Amino acid sequence: MNRKFLPILLVVFLITTACGFSVNLPRSSTPEPVVTDKIQVDVPSSGEAHLKLSFGAGEVYLTPGAQDLLVDGTAKYNYSQLKPFIKTNGEDVSISSGEGKFNAFPNFGDLTNRWDLKLGSAPTDLTIEAGAYNGEFELGGLSLTGLTIKDGASTVTVTFSKPNESEMSILRYETGASNVKLVGLANANFGTLDFTGGAGDYTLDFSGELQRSATATIDAGLCNIMLVIPEGVHA
Predict the structure, then answer these.
(1) CA–CA separation, 63 and 71 (whole Å)
(2) Is 10 exposed, middle or buried (0-12, 13-18, 19+ CB in 10 A)?
């Protein structure tokens, strides 16, 4: 067959078979009534904890103030698949936003998924893994022995308004195209800071009371980044 006829035949074939094509778009889930669950987790018997918070889309707010508990707060959600689950195994504690699977895509415009959690004063190695969300974390005055945050497209402010009561071995933050502010980093009392970012807007403010020598490594892509190093902080 002559090659010049192939494009013509292809067009004719597509026209004559166009009526046979159908596109099944994913249907969206219907929001359910908002449910509020109380979240309370005891401090492990050893007095120390490895706490992991796993969250998808929504809002997360963390503050100090859990009295005699590791975690105390609430979770609000309007899809049953987002119901938080708590698992404990000795010093290992995990709180995850849902273990159910959506049969259809949720309507993110009507999504309610909000955690308001207070953290206790027990020495804690804290890990936060999240997707596209808004977060405000006030961590000043806690006893964090380590802090790891991994998230996607997010808007997050992490503040250490008071000195961390424990020596933090490493503060690690890995993010994508996000808007992230880390404020009061000198108060975090870390030995090593490792920040990795993609295309986003990042502010790293080293204000606070520097209690010991530390190393900070910052690796970012095409982004806007601001470093705030107050006068008197040796760098």
Answers:
(1) 10
(2) exposed
Count of beta carbons in the 10 Å neighbourhood of residue 5: 9
Pick from 103, 117, 35, 36: nearest CA to 73: 117
- Farthest CA pair distance, the chain: 83
Beta bridge partners of 225: 202
Mean pLDDT confidence for 221-232: 92
The per-residue pLDDT for range 149-171, each reduced to its tens digit, is 999 989 999 999 999 999 999 99
Q: Are 85 and 99 in contact (CB under 8 A)?
A: yes
Beta strands in the chain (DSSP E): 35-41, 49-55, 58-64, 71-77, 84-89, 92-97, 113-119, 124-130, 133-138, 144-150, 155-159, 168-174, 179-183, 190-197, 201-205, 215-220, 224-228
User: Shortest CA distance to 196 belongs to which of 138, 146, 160, 151?
Assistant: 151
Is 8 exposed, middle or buried, given 0-12, 13-18 or 19+ CB atoms closer than 10 A? exposed
Contact between residue 54 and residue 82 where contact means Cβ atoms under 8 Å apart: no
DSSP category for residue 166: S
Read off the pTM: 0.85
How many Å separate Cα 109 from the centre of its chain? 20
Three-class DSSP category at 12: helix
